[in-house]
Amino acid sequence: MAVATILLGQLWKLNETGDTWLVTKIYSEVFASYVVLRKVGGTDADLRRVKVDKSGDSVSLPGFTFTQESEAF
Fold it and tell me: In sequence order, which residues have a C-beta less than 8 Å from that of residue 44 and are 6 or more positions away?
């Protein structure tokens, strides 16, 4: 699912397993943006770095679905 922007603290669901992941860091490298996700209820080792897909005015995380009802923060 695409949203207007990715913010710290957003919750995303991993499509493969249904696990919930929390956005803990957002950063850019040269021409791409990345987020670091931490599994909710997981250990310190449960981290993933995911490249942000940009499409027009929206962004998404491949393999993840935005889980919150509203993106108005």
Answer: none
Global pTM reads 0.85
- Non-local (6+) Cβ contacts of 34 within 8 A are 26, 27, 28, 49, 50, 51, 52
Cα dihedral 33/52/34/73 (nearest 10): 90
d(CA 4, CA 22): 17
Contact assessment for residue 68 and residue 54, using Cβ atoms and an 8 Å cutoff: no
What are the tens digits of pLDDT across the range 34-71? 999 999 988 888 899 999 999 989 999 999 999 976 54
Q: What is the DSSP letter of 3?
A: B
